[in-house]
Amino acid sequence: GAVRFPVRRLVRTMKLSRRLASLLPVLPKMAVDGLLFAAAYFLAFRLRLDRMESSDLQTIALTVAPVVLLKIAVYHLMGSYRSIWRYSSLSDLEELTRATLVCVLGVIGVGFSLPQGLNVPRSVPFIDMALALLLTGGVRMFVRVLHDSSGKRGSGWSIPMRLLSGQSAGN
Question: Minimal CA–CA distance to 95: which of 105, 85, 106, 107?
């Protein structure tokens, strides 16, 4: 038959204080991602524009906070903060990719909401998307490699180092 869900479970609301308390464990991840999102956004402008005019700096200053908050919200809603970074895998990278693709729509929307005279160049949201994915995915994979190489999960760097030195695994 059909799957039934108790009505109470679907309607149940969480108090704001409990909801905010549930975010405490992921706040450090959100903070790191927030810094990375801001860096990606600024670098996207920097890579796109030969010279940064005062209007470009004003656009960045006006839009960086909404863009960062929007991206953190999308990443949270799409489950990017559920995993533990030291166990990041390809499925986590797929999740980041989906969230980043949704974020590009938000960045485009923020660009359309700017007052007259300020604009986000059309390519900036896409450059920002690529940089945000590279930075957030890179940090997660760096944490995983760091954890793996610390000896807590297997041999870490021993196999690649043997390969690089030309020694066989049997020696």
Answer: 85
Interval 37-74: pLDDT, tens:
999 999 999 999 989 899 899 999 999 999 999 999 99
For the chain, give the longest Cα–Cα distance: 69
Position 100: which residue type?
T
Query: From CA 152, how far away is CA 140, in angstroms rounded?
Result: 17
CA–CA distance, 49 with 42 (Å, rounded to integer): 11
Which of these, 118, 104, 116, lies nearest to 57 by C-alpha position? Answer: 118
What is the C-alpha separation between 102 and 99, in angstroms, rounded?
5
- 7-26 tens-digit pLDDT: 555 555 667 777 767 777 78
Using alpha carbons, select from 46, 67, 162, 147 the residue that is nearest to residue 109.
Answer: 67
Please state, in angstroms and rounded to a whole number, the distance separating the CA atoms of residues 154 and 163. 17
Query: Taking Cα atoms as reference points, which of 138, 136, 109, 137 lies closest to residue 125?
Result: 109
The rounded distance, in Å, linking the Cα atoms of 86 and 103 is 24
